[in-house]
Amino acid sequence: AAVRGLSTTAQLSKINNVTVIGAGLMGSGIAQVSANAKLNVVVVDSNQSALDKAQKGIESSLQRVAKKKHADDAKAQTALVSSVLDRIKMSTNMSDSVKDADLVIEAIVENIDIKRKLFAEVEAAAKPTTLITTNTSSLRLADIGLNLKDKTRFGGLHFFNPVPMMKLLEVVRHNDTSDDTFQKLMEYGKAVGKTTVACKDTPGFIVNRLLVPYMFEALRLYERGDASMPDIDVAMKLGAGYPMGPFELSDYVGLDTCKFIMDGWHKQYPDEVAFKPSPLLDSLVDAGKTGRKSGEGFYKYK
Ligand code: 3HC
User: Fold this and answer.
1) What total of structural domains would you count in the chain?
2) Between the CA of residue 97 and those of 4, 181, 199, what are the distances in Å?
3) Cα 137 to Cα 38, 112, 252, 299, 301, distances in angstroms
4) ipTM of the complex
5) Is the CB of 161 under 6 A from ligand 1?
6) pTM for the complete prediction?
7) CA neighbours closer than 13 Å in the CB half-sphere of residue 300
C-alpha cells in the first residue's frame, strides 16, 4: 500500500504547470482553483481586455473566498489573495504559454472548427508528454480531438459554474484516452479540491445530460401555460432542494450557452424529444437577452 501511495504522489507531482486557454468565466475559475492548489498557471487569450477582465474577476472571487476563510483577519485575507494571484500569469501568446505546460485546459468558445485548429497548434507547441484537455460542455471529444496526432494524452475536464464553489469535476475519457492520462486527470481533480466522476464521451456527460433537458422541460411547462416562471423556480427550490430554480439557473449559465447546447444536440439527435428547440428561448437569444450577463434573460437584473 505504501508503494502504491508513493507512486500516486510521484505521478501527481508531474503536474506543476497548468495552461488555461480562454479567459472567460470558466477559464478564470479553472485558473483560480489550480493556482489555489499551488500549481503554476498561465491563462492565455488572444484578447487582452478579456485577460484584464479575468484578472479582476479572479481577484474579486478570491476576496470572497478569503473573507470566508479568514473572517476577522484582514492581513490573512490579503496574503491569501496575493499568494494565489502571484501564481497566475496572463498571456496573449499561445505557443509560448504551452511549451512548459504539464497540463493544458481549453475553455474557449464552443465551436468545433476553432477548437480543432487550436488543439493542433497546442500539440505542435507543447511537450510530447503534456496532457491536453477540453472543458467542453456539449461537444464530443472524438470530434474536437480529430486533428491530434497523439490522442492518448487527450481527455475532458468539465467544471461547473461558479468553478470555485461547485465541488464536482467530470473527468471524460474518449476511446483513445490512455489509462495513465485518465488517472492523472483524476489526480489533478482531487488536487484542486474537486470530487471527480468518470464520464464517457457522450452528449452532456452526466450533469448536462440530465440538467439541460430538465431546464428545457421547465421552459415547455411555462410555454404550455401550466405555471408561471417564479412559481416553477420556487417549486424546484423548495420542493426538490435545488439552490436555484430552472429559469434562474438558465439565466446564470447564459441563455446563449443553453441554446447552443440544445441546438447542437438537436442537430445530432433530431428524433430526441428532449432536445427540441424552444421558441421563447430562441427569441430571447435573438434579442440579445442572454441572461444575467446581459442584464436580462427570463428575468431582469440590475
Ligand atoms: N467565487 C467565490 N465565491 C463565490 C462565488 C464565486 N464566483 N459565487 C458565490 N460564492 C460564494 C459566496 O461568497 C457565498 O459565500 P457565503 O455563503 O459564505 O457568504 C456563497 O458562495 C453563496 O453565495 P450567494 O449568497 O451569493 O448566493 P447563493 O447562496 O445562491 O449561492 C451559488 C450561489 C453557489 C451559485 C448557488 O446558487 C448554486 O449552487 N447555484 C447552482 C449553480 C449550478 O447549478 N451550477 C452548475 C451550472 S451547469 C454548468 O456550469 C455546466 C455548463 O457546462 C453549462
Assistant:
1) 2
2) 33, 21, 29
3) 26, 12, 15, 24, 25
4) 0.94
5) yes
6) 0.93
7) 1
pLDDT of the residue at 284: 98
**Dist. CA 155–CA 70, nearest whole Å:** 36
266 is catalytic: no
Q: 244 and 264: one domain?
A: yes
Sign of torsion, CA 248 134 105 147? negative
Q: Examine residue 206 and state whether it is found in any structural domain, yes or no.
A: no
Is a pLDDT exceeding 70 seen at residue 34? yes
Q: Is 22 left (phi over 0), alpha (psi -120 to 50) or beta?
A: left
Q: Identify the domain boundary among 200, 228, 255.
A: 200
Look-up: residue for cell 504522489?
Answer: 9
> Would you say the CB of residue 208 lies under 6 angstroms from ligand 1?
yes
> In this structure, what C-alpha cell is assigned to residue 89?
500569469
* 270 CA from centroid of ligand 1 (Å): 34
From 36, 84, 165, 197, mutation site for ligand 1 pocket: most ligand atoms within 8 A of C-beta: 165
Q: Name the residue with cell 442584464.
A: 295
Domain holding 142, by residue range, is 2-200
